[in-house]
Amino acid sequence: MERRFYVRNSGVAAAMPKRSVRQLPKRCLLRVPLSCWRRWSKTVSLPLEGQRVLVTRPAGHGDSLVSTLENAGAQVLHRPTLALVPNQAPLPVLDLPPDWIVFVSPFAVDTGWPRLPLAWQQTARLAAVGPGTASAMIAHGALSVIAPPQGGGAEALLAAPEFAPQAGQTVLLVCGTGGRQQLQQTLRAQGVQVVEAVVYDRQPAAAQLNVPEGWQQSALDFLIVTSAAGLEYLLGMAGPSALQWLKQGRLVTVSERLAQAAVMAGFADPVVAAGADDAALLAALSARVGSTK
What we know:
Blueprint: E1 4-8, H1 18-21, E2 29-33, H2 34-41, E3 52-55, H3 63-71, E4 75-78, E5 82-86, E6 100-103, H4 106-112, H5 118-123, E7 125-128, H6 131-139, H7 154-159, E8 170-176, H8 182-189, E9 193-204, H9 213-216, E10 222-224, H10 228-237, H11 240-246, E11 250-253, H12 256-264, E12 271-272, H13 278-291
Helix pairs in contact: 3-13, 4-6
EC number: 4.2.1.75
Function: Catalyzes cyclization of the linear tetrapyrrole, hydroxymethylbilane, to the macrocyclic uroporphyrinogen III.
Keywords: Lyase, Porphyrin biosynthesis
């Protein structure tokens, strides 16, 4: 009997590595004869085939992106520049439950949600700065979350019509140390009381950016940086030769603000993805590669 492979019948995922294919539900799979697979695999063109990509997401938070890019044909080097570390800072003391609770990242959800009083979770309106953060909240038991449908960040949440804290109301912002203050400043200017619950710290992931010699001997096509702290720590970790190599690649980020910061740091013509999720980043890289063919 001829050997057969299971493959997904759609786009990029049709060429998934065998170890990833095994994880797919059977309803998503087709049985393909080995001979047909070999003929097909020689003709398929993956959107990122041959592209060399550096991913800088924090350790433990970049595996799915790495897999997504590899499945699209890219060679991926994951070098975290940012470490997210839970802290034990006490939650703010409030006389009444907050009117709103806003989470700034999936890690803020994972770290902060279990620490919030149940009464706060049940009575406050819930919001997230992006769809990925909203998904994390739902996974923890939230029933209804207001979030931008795509993209992310303070600007996107403030632009969402459903997110409308009123003057005199209290917003609890679950966040990490540092970070931007745009959301807080905008709400306070509208008469909203903003209280921060700082549940994790941001730290450099390492003293130096350890790039294998074999990688530096060939040009870098893309590097992905999704936060201001990640960019700051990347610049601090990279030595002169590594920094020169990095700037040969096209930096991909998730907001115009970060793109402007990258330009000021010496990166030419950054690409701004529609969001910080894996699909949006893959789409941004694929579109850039497609435009140069």
